[in-house]
Amino acid sequence: MSEQDGPGRERVLAWVERVAAFVSEEWGLAPISGRILGWLMVCDPPEQTASDIAGTIGASRASLTTNLHLLTSHRLIRRFRKTGERNVYYAIEDDAWAKIVRQKLAVFAAFDELAAEGLRLGWRDLARTARIRAARKSIAEALHQVEAGTE
Asked: pLDDT (tens digit, 0 to 9) for every residue of the chain, 151 residues total?
């Protein structure tokens, strides 16, 4: 990657590290998973071998293999071979981010159902359910904003 093509390699790798930190902190995945995702979002060509990825992000082969398998099993990246080649390539799935958003929304919807169940336990004192109702209200508002496209 040359400076003429866009940001320099150091800036790109610093951004990849920020993606890794985000994925680790927010999703609980290993930082290497975030590095893989970050790199596959911006690399050229968009498909990379495990060796290409390992060399760029500085990962051990064993750690890389484990995380490539994880990301592949969640269908965030895909594994494929090019016709006539022996190398295995990886690329980010076109709908990876839509899948992540759908998963997060499903988690909120599942918790909302759990909160609704808590309200059906038969409380006599409505003040004791205020926190549950507040949780449901916040979830409903967030889901509404996402549906309306205002988030």
From this structure: 445 668 999 999 999 999 999 999 998 999 999 999 999 999 999 999 999 999 999 999 999 999 999 999 999 999 999 999 999 999 999 999 899 888 888 999 999 999 999 999 989 988 889 999 999 999 999 888 877 875 5
Predicted TM-score (pTM) of this structure? 0.77
SS (H, E, C) the chain: CCHHHCCCHHHHHHHHHHHHHHHHHHHCCCHHHHHHHHHHHHCCCCCEEHHHHHHHHCCCHHHHHHHHHHHHHCCCEEEEECCCCCCEEEEECCCHHHHHHHHHHHHHHHHHHHHHHHHCCCCCCHHHHHHHHHHHHHHHHHHHHHHHCCC
